[in-house]
Design a protein that fits this description.
The protein is an all-alpha fold. It has ten helices and three strands. β2 and β3 form a beta hairpin. It is found in: Cell membrane.
C-alpha cells in the first residue's frame, strides 16, 4: 500500500471509529428518551434522526474509501456503487435539513412567550415527524439521478468520459438533467442554510441579552448550572458553527479541485476529513454539553 493511502486510512479510521461510537451513543440515548420517556420532546426525535443520518454518512463513505484504499476491484459492483453513492448523497442532504430543523426548533423554544414565533414551536414529537418525512422525500428525489449514472469502476467502459467517485464511476449525463438536479441541490442548500443562519443569529442575540441580564450572577454561577434551555442553545450554536465550517471549506476545496483538475493525496485526505468531520464531531458536542448522558447509559 502506498504511503499516501496509509495516511488516508489513518485519517479515515481516526474519524470513522469515534464517529460511529459517538453517534450510536446519541442515537440510543435519544431513542430511549423518545420511546420510554415520560415527556416526548420534539428535539429528542430530531437528534435521533440527526445521529442516524450521520451514521449513514460515515458507513457509506467508509465502504467506498476502504474499497479505494485496498484496491478491491469489483468489490461493490454496479448495485453496490449505486447504493453507497446514493445513500451518502441522500444522508448528506438529510443532515443539512435536520440540522436546520434543530436550529429552528431551538430558536422558537427560547423566543419570548409573548411573540408569535413561540406559538409556532412544536409541542410534541409527532408534530415534527411530518417534517422529517418531507426531508426524506425531498432528498430521495434530488439524489435519484445518481441511480442512472453510477457504475462500478471495473465494469465501466474506460473510453467513455466520466468521473471517478472513489471506487465507482459516474457517467456523464445530459446537460439539462445535470443542471436540473444541480439547481435543486443548490436551492435546497441555500434555503436551509439561510434558515439556519437566521435562527442561529436569533439565538445568539437572545443569549447576548440573557448574559447581560444575569451578568451579576456569573461570579457564583457556572455555565453547567445555567438553565437547560441555555445549555441546549449553546450546544446547537456550536453545531451550527461546525456544520457551516465543514460545509463551506469542503465546497471551496471541491470547487478548486474541480476547476484545476488536481487530485493530490493531500487534497483527498483533507476532503475525507471534511466529509466525515461534522458527522463524527457533532455527537461529542452533544455528549460533552449534556451531563445526563452517563446517567441514562447507566440506567440502560
Amino acid at each position: 500500500m502506498k504511503r499516501s493511502n496509509i495516511t488516508q486510512a489513518i485519517v479515515f479510521l481516526s474519524l470513522a471509529g469515534p464517529g460511529i461510537v459517538g453517534n450510536i451513543i446519541v442515537f440510543l440515548r435519544y431513542l430511549y428518551m423518545f420511546a420510554l420517556g415520560a415527556e416526548k420532546k420534539p428535539i429528542n426525535l430530531i437528534l435521533t434522526h440527526l445521529a442516524f443520518s450521520n451514521m449513514i454518512i460515515i458507513c457509506t463513505t467508509g465502504v467506498t474509501d476502504i474499497a479505494t484504499l485496498f484496491y478491491f476491484r469489483n468489490f461493490l459492483g454496479d448495485i453496490g456503487c449505486k447504493a453507497m453513492v446514493y445513500l451518502a448523497r441522500m444522508a448528506r442532504g438529510l443532515s443539512i435539513c435536520t440540522t436546520c430543523l434543530l436550529s429552528l426548533v431551538q430558536a422558537l423554544t427560547i423566543s419570548p412567550g409573548t411573540t408569535i414565533w413561540r406559538k409556532l414551536k412544536p409541542q410534541t414529537s409527532w408534530q415534527v415527524l411530518p417534517f422529517l418525512l418531507l426531508f426524506w422525500i425531498v432528498n430521495v428525489l434530488i439524489s435519484s439521478n445518481l441511480l442512472c449514472y453510477i457504475k462500478a469502476g471495473g465494469d465501466s467502459n474506460m473510453s467513455t468520459p466520466g468521473t471517478y467517485i472513489g471506487h465507482c464511476y459516474m457517467l456523464p449525463s445530459r446537460n439539462i438533467i445535470m443542471w436540473l438536479f444541480l439547481s435543486l441541490m443548490t436551492l435546497r442548500d441555500v434555503t436551509f442554510q439561510s434558515l439556519m443562519g437566521w435562527s442561529s443569529g436569533s439565538m445568539a442575540l437572545r443569549l447576548y441579552k440573557h448574559q447581560k441580564r444575569v451578568l451579576y450572577l456569573h461570579s457564583s454561577r457556572s455555565e453547567n448550572n445555567s438553565p437547560p434551555e441555555i445549555r441546549a442553545t449553546w450546544s446547537i450554536l456550536i453545531l451550527m458553527s461546525c456544520f457551516l465550517f465543514f460545509y463551506w471549506v469542503d465546497f471551496i476545496l471541491s470547487f478548486h479541485t474541480g476547476f484545476t483538475v488536481t487530485h493530490s493525496s493531500l487534497s483527498l485526505n483533507i476532503k475525507t476529513f471534511l466529509e466525515l468531520g461534522y458527522a463524527g464531531f457533532s455527537p461529542y458536542v452533544l455528549i460533552s454539553r449534556d451531563i445526563r448522558v452517563p446517567n441514562v447509559l447507566h440506567a440502560q
